[in-house]
Each structure stands twice: as structure tokens, then as C-alpha cells.
Amino acid sequence: MERVVFESTDRLSRLEADTFDELAERSLQPVRMRYADLQEQIDSIGEAIVQEDILIDKISSLKLERAALAKKSTAQELSWQN
After folding, report:
1. What pTM value is reported for the model?
2. In this structure, what is the dihedral angle of CA atoms 35, 38, 43, 49, given to the nearest 10 degrees?
3. Closest CA to 3 of 21, 29, 27, 25
4. pLDDT of 5-26, one tens digit each?
5. For residue 16, which of 5, 8, 27 has the smallest C-alpha distance?
6. Residue 44: how many CA atoms within 13 Å on its side-chain side?
């Protein structure tokens, strides 16, 4: 079947391939490269999302810590004034 497809393909459309496998490889190479690039971008975006989630999770604890420090600072200021 591959031979029939290859032989029915116009010589100019064969991309200088001598076999169906070569033609398939040459035809699919741009698609595979694009797929790899997109997969790399997806991985990078996924990692960025994870890092952002970690930072967002830290915000609430940092706000609590800041409030506690502000309260402590205010208490110390009041004790120094007395």
C-alpha cells in the first residue's frame, strides 16, 4: 500500500525521497518539530504556573507575619513611651 501511495505521488511532491518512509519522514519533520516546540512551551508554562502558585500560597502567610510584626512593633513602641 505504501508503495502504491509513493508511486502515485507526483515526483516533484516527493521531496527528493526515494521511499515512502523517507517521504513520510520529510513530510512529517516540520510537524514533529512544531509539536516539540509546543510541548516545550507547555512544559515551561506549566512550570511557571507551579512557581506562581507557590508564591501565591506564601502571600497569606507573609501577610499574617507582617501583621504580627506590626502588632509587636506597635506594642514595643507603646511600652517605650511609658
Report:
1. 0.58
2. -150
3. 21
4. 777 787 877 788 888 889 889 9
5. 27
6. 6
Residue whose grid cell is 509513493? 6
| Count of structural domains, the chain | 1
Give the Cα separation of 3 and 13 in Å (integer): 15
The H or E element that residue 47 is part of is: helix 20-81
Q: Cell digits for 33?
A: 518539530
Burial per residue of 10-22, b for 16 or more beta-carbon CB atoms within 10 angstroms, e otherwise: eeeebeebeebee
- At 73, which amino acid appears? S
Q: What is residue 18's predicted lDDT score, i.e. its pLDDT?
A: 87
What is the domain extent for residue 42?
A: 2-81
Scan for cell 517605650, then name that residue: 80
